[in-house]
Write a structure and sequence with these properties.
- The chain contains 30 helices and 15 strands.
- By secondary structure, it is an alpha+beta fold.
- The chain has three domains: about 10-210, Aldehyde Ferredoxin Oxidoreductase,  A, domain 1 (4-Layer Sandwich), CATH 3.60.9.10; about 345-435, no CATH class; about 450-675, Orthogonal Bundle (Aldehyde Ferredoxin Oxidoreductase Protein, subunit A, domain 3), CATH 1.10.599.
- Strand 14 and strand 15 form a beta hairpin.
- Helix 22 packs across helix 28.
- The protein is globular and about 60 Å long.
- The chain binds iron/sulfur cluster (SF4).
- Iron/sulfur cluster binds next to helix 23.
- This is Aldehyde ferredoxin oxidoreductase N-terminal domain-containing protein.
């Protein structure tokens, strides 16, 4: 990083909660030329600062909140990257994990003059961290402990004169539930990693930030041009938007069904004085024109009454359309309570409980102490959520340790394995499977590369970065605009495949469910590395997935995968060519893998549950949505995995990166440390 910073603001805050001290250090202490920011910077900080013996809830665990070089500019998405050792492992104690949240928290951190915050130690009593430009101090939060997320954020917002951007934990984090999140505004949360529990273990209730600075940009005119280019690519021009036609047509497609498009009855009950309005919402400088809706106070005071964004809005919308607005509204109420309590997406875990409940007589009053006959009702749901957040009942406390623990405890190991598998993920790793608590599991959505991507993620088998945007394009959810199978659709699919891999064959193989294709390993490698770059710059991955592959507004519907790179250039002045992009992705993925390797991860952690092969058998797939007869066998999968190790430069027998791979990536010091300090027997 040069002396004059473009994109960065140049300072990190190192907060020792045990000593109650705050130190300002140069961001480049951790070599931003090599690790850029966000996920990259957070990973090198973990590698450097976090002792390998640190348990997730130990004071020694290091918790980072990082911005990226694009954060606080005009087109980034405002995400904050959070990393630490996660408690969400079972029966192991968890491993290094990451998550991120949107809102305006990260840009505000840059405006206050900081690229990130590193928390170490444990405060002697509940505290919050207060930043107001140059002032950065630890403050007493004993009066805030016990408040839900909306209450504590409202209080800190009020104390800041309605200026601060806040991230906080609710009761679930305070009680260290595995389902806990960190929340910023009403709906932006760290959905993975159980990081609310890590904050809780450090007695850290919230972070309140306000700043008056700005981020210097190397090429301001270039940035303005790029903003216009991107808007033309992925959303309506702002002056063309109306309530019926929001900036992003994808968002508009679910608007009609949301319970927020209110009935008069609802308005009368909730808003007799007309103080509320329904508004589009989005993170700071969303490149996609915003992806959410919320009900907020017209005068801008206080937290809104609820907000739905992205993946939250889709099921609510679908449910409202299918079952009526009342059902959708109940769903939204659950989500809002979820966010107040600081739990991870309750809808996915209720969906997870559903097959167990449907199987009958597995969860009974006798073995759990609660009456399951009301399962699915609003009262039952609310009570269960409270008991998981506060661990106020035996069952609540057991669920708070993760589904895998709960199911094994209450219904025995073999059945637990079946249902655990049905709830969460595909990977039979005690470290990576997250104890079955959070993330995403999309039954039937794993095409060949998707399956391999999830299984080899450096996070866990529910890593949202592994959802395959290409799935939508290949199998067609772009509706009338680009009918699957049409000539135009075929041209776009072939074009994307050629652009990324030099040939249409790669997408062709994927579409044909060719588990033995040579295309799968390089595809998987590209996905991991591309997302690593996105997350380090930081550019919203939700927006990027959509705008890379497809546009509603360009001729031929072509998207642009290079937008993050182009932005990086105009913001920092650094021209990141294709080779550097690949080299960064490689280095970054290798660093994360090294952190996991020192925690004991190897090939065994990349293997699948045996039940996956049953689910992907020819018979099951033939009768599925995909109607393919090409089933997956263990041999297929292990062959794909071997091929992936080969392209990654990892040892096939152990799954560990080779010394020569670290050397080729320009980071031999990481291999040296693995061998000399941690005693890892790295293959040559
Ligand atoms: S697409 Fe959604 S999550 Fe991403 S930046 Fe925009 S509003 Fe935030």
């Amino acid at each position: 990083m040069a002396d004059e910073y473009y994109g960065y603001v140049g300072t990190l805050l190192k907060v020792n909660l045990t000593d109650m001290t705050v130190e300002k250090i140069p961001t480049n202490t951790y070599d931003t030329d090599k690790w850029i920011g966000g996920r990259g910077l957070g990973s090198i900080i973990q590698w450097t600062e976090c002792p390998t013996t640190a348990g997730a809830l130990d004071p020694e665990n290091v918790l980072t909140f990082l911005t990226g070089s694009l954060t606080g500019t005009m087109l980034d998405g405002g995400r904050t990257f959070v990393q630490a050792v996660s408690p969400a492992g079972y029966p192991d104690t968890g491993s290094f994990a990451r998550s991120s949240f949107g809102s305006s928290f990260a840009p505000e951190m840059k405006f206050a003059g900081y690229d990130g915050i590193i928390f170490m130690g444990k405060a002697p009593y509940p505290v919050y961290f207060y930043i107001n430009d140059d002032i950065a101090e630890i403050r007493d939060a004993r009066d805030l402990w016990g408040m839900d997320n909306f209450a504590v954020q409202n209080e800190l917002y009020r104390r800041s004169g309605n200026k601060a951007k806040i991230a906080s934990i609710g009761p679930a984090g305070e009680h260290m539930s595995m389902f806990s999140t960190i929340l910023s505004d009403e709906s932006s949360a760290t959905g993975m990693g159980s990081f609310g529990a890590v904050m809780g273990s450090k007695n850290l209730k919230a972070i309140s930030i306000q700043g008056t600075g700005s981020v210097k940009v190397a090429d301001p005119q270039g940035l303005l041009d790029l903003v216009e280019y991107t808007q033309n690519l992925c959303c309506r021009k702002l002056y063309e938007t109306t309530p019926e036609a929001p900036a992003n047509s994808y968002v508009g497609s679910w608007q009609a069904s949301l319970p927020l498009t209110d009935t008069d009855l609802y308005k009368e009950a909730r808003d007799p004085e007309g103080k509320l309005e329904i508004a589009y919402t989005g993170c700071y400088s969303c490149p996609w024109g915003g992806c959410g809706y919320g009900v907020r106070f017209k005068d801008g005071s206080g937290m809104s009454l609820g907000q739905l964004r992205c993946t939250e809005a889709i099921p609510v919308s679908a449910e409202s359309a299918a079952c009526g607005e009342y059902v959708g509204r109940a769903h939204m109420k659950r989500l809002t309570l979820n966010e107040r309590l600081g739990l991870s997406d309750c809808n996915t875990w209720f969906q997870g409980l559903d097959p167990i409940f449907q199987a009958g007589n597995i969860l009974t009053e006798e073995n759990t102490g609660i009456d399951w006959t009301n399962f699915g009702t609003e009262d039952f749901t609310r009570e269960l959520m409270y008991s998981v957040a506060y661990q106020s009942t035996e069952v609540g406390a057991a669920i708070a340790k993760g589904w895998r623990y709960f199911l094994e405890e209450y219904i025995g190991t073999p059945e637990a394995k079946y249902f655990y598998r049905a709830i969460r993920g595909i990977r039979n790793s005690p470290k990576h499977n997250g104890g079955g608590v959070c993330g995403w599991y999309i039954p039937g959505a794993y095409l060949a590369p998707g399956l391999l991507r999830f299984a080899t993620s450096n996070l866990n088998a529910t890593d949202i970065r592994c959802t395959g945007a290409e799935t939508y394009l290949l199998f067609g959810s772009n509706g009338d605009l680009l009918p699957p199978g049409s000539d135009e659709w075929q041209a776009l699919v072939d074009g994307n495949s050629t652009k990324l891999f030099g040939s249409p064959q790669v997408y062709e193989d994927i579409r044909n469910w060719d588990w033995e294709s040579d295309s799968i390993a390089p595809f998987c490698k590209w996905n991991h590395q591309f997302k690593a770059l996105d997350d380090s710059l930081i550019f919203c991955y939700i927006a990027m997935s959509a705008m890379g592959i497809y546009s509603n507004y360009t001729e031929g519907h072509e998207g642009d995968f290079d937008i993050p790179k182009k932005l990086f250039k105009v913001v920092t002045g650094i021209d990141f060519g294709e080779e550097e992009e690949a080299a960064f992705g490689e280095r970054m993925f290798l660093l994360e893998r090294a952190i996991l390797t020192r925690q004991g991860c190897d090939r065994n952690d990349d293997l699948l549950f045996d039940e996956v092969y049953q689910e992907y058998s020819a018979e099951n797939l033939e009768n599925s949505f995909y109607q393919t007869e090409t089933g997956l066998t263990k041999e297929h999968y292990e062959k794909m995995l071997d091929a992936w190790y080969e392209v990654m430069g990892f040892d096939v027998a152990t799954g560990m990166p080779k010394v020569s791979t670290f050397e080729a990536a320009g980071v031999p010091e990481i291999a040296d440390r693995l061998v000399s300090e941690y005693g890892v027997q790295l293959p040559a």
